Amino acid sequence: MAKISAYFGVSVDDLLKQEKDLVPKSKVTDDDVKFALFGGGPVSDAQYEEVKQFVRFIKERDAHGKKE
Question: Which one of 3, 13, 33, 56 has the largest count of C-beta atoms within 10 Å of its C-beta?
Fold first, then answer.
């Protein structure tokens, strides 16, 4: 375990934690998402809202077993 933890740069305790015990190190912000989707270029609030609506549509569709 010590060698594995050293390889990944984490403690042995971190390796042994249950998934539910893990806390994300940072939260992804809207600015992070906008940068990833639009490459740092300008994006209007309307464009971003449309992207979020599309994501909701895909999630809803997939929740009902209509994956393609």
Answer: 33
Reported as a single tens digit per residue, the pLDDT across 10-64 is 888 887 876 555 555 668 788 888 888 888 889 899 999 999 899 999 989 988 8
Mind giving me the DSSP string for the chain? Answer: -HHHHHHHT--HHHHHS-GGG---SSPPPHHHHHHHHHTTS---HHHHHHHHHHHHHHHHHHHTT---
% helix / strand / coil in the chain, to the nearest 5? 65, 0, 35
Q: Retrieve residue 18's tokens.
A: 């249950």
CA distance 15 to 8: 9
Pairwise CA distance, residues 27 & 7, whole Å: 25
52's tokens: 């979020």
